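Message: I would value a second opinion on how I read folds in token form. Give me a protein, with the fold worked out from its sequence. Write it directly below this note and I will take it from there.
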Amino acid sequence: MDLFSKTKGLGIVHALRKANLYPFFRILEGSIGHNVKSSGKNLVMMSSNNYLGLTHDPRVQEASIEAIRYWGTGCTGSRFLNGNLSLHEQLEKQLAAFFGTESAIVFASGFLANEGAIPALAGEGDYIFSDEENHACIIEGCKISDAKVLVYRHADMEHLEELLKTVPLDAGKLIITDGVFSMTGHTAPYDKIYTLAKTYNARTYIDDAHGLGVIGQGGRGTASHYGLPADIIMGTFSKSLASQGGFIVGSTEIVDWLRHNARTFMFSAALAPASTAAAMKALEILNEEPERVEKAGQNAVYFKNGLKELGLNTMGSPTTIIPVFIGDDATCLGLCQTLLKLGVFTTPVVFPAVPKGHALIRCSVMPNHTKQDLDIALNAFAQVAQVIVTANASPNTVALHDELKKSSPAPRFDEQPMSATSIN
């Protein structure tokens, strides 16, 4: 068999493109953060990870520009060898101070942080306990670790305890969870995880990519939200901190160990100066202006209340990530295309990103969304609300992904009960 024969197996992509329902790689022609331009049309951005709205803050932009002027555009090597800038060291000190930990380490991306730290910390003879809905980079880090990985049902503390009981008390154990789950906005039950960790002699690791800047005192994330420490907190700069890159904070011993054992740190080019400076300035702004977190929360309450008045299910999200439950994959894709026509950029989430029959539209709000922005979005949802309510009442648990994999001809989307695509 030809090695590349597998590359012909993108029938689902071709079918979605033909039906004008392909929701990925949309081209943005301009952005000011909470508003974007696509296909020549101005849209309200309601599906960004720019949780503090800092990507276009003049202070962040200027810090990035100044870093390029002083340091150039790249580091030309890994931090382990020739790319370790004083700028990186400054950012790490600020991160440690912000989270109240002894030390911090900055990676070139959040994915690389998890992919490098997890196998460096948990090896042969150790055990990892991972929430089944953890992010892909956690899963990847677990896969390449020599530790035994035990996956517990999402946020199911009884199941986690059952698994912990199967492992010797004196064995090395690491419990890993997302702090805020990116699709639903739900927080991990870290208070219970912390108690179990103490009971069964385990260490805790929180991926707070979506918690930083969103929950906790001054946006300090999940551990702060519960008022309990974590052994390791991982985060990213690509969301609340308006840049790119990732980091881990913890004890000096843990961080120094990662500096010399995390392969994705040792063998990756260092984070670019512009990105480092932007993240540092955004962190300073968050530290000095915690009201941004409060304002984002107020906008979230306004938007969620508006959706609830329309009879829509926001799945009980307590954060600024606001899912709108749909159910049916095809309807979800069609609704997002309709919302786009109505001036609102949203993101559909379908199987396998969520269980079959649990498709949703992922929204999020920023502190710099105006009331007019939110009202435009609510008006758009009002125009498709009946379609959503109908889809909720009779969820189709057959995933579109599976339908298009069958040998029979792919379904014609215009014959499916998804009238949202024809709403004016």
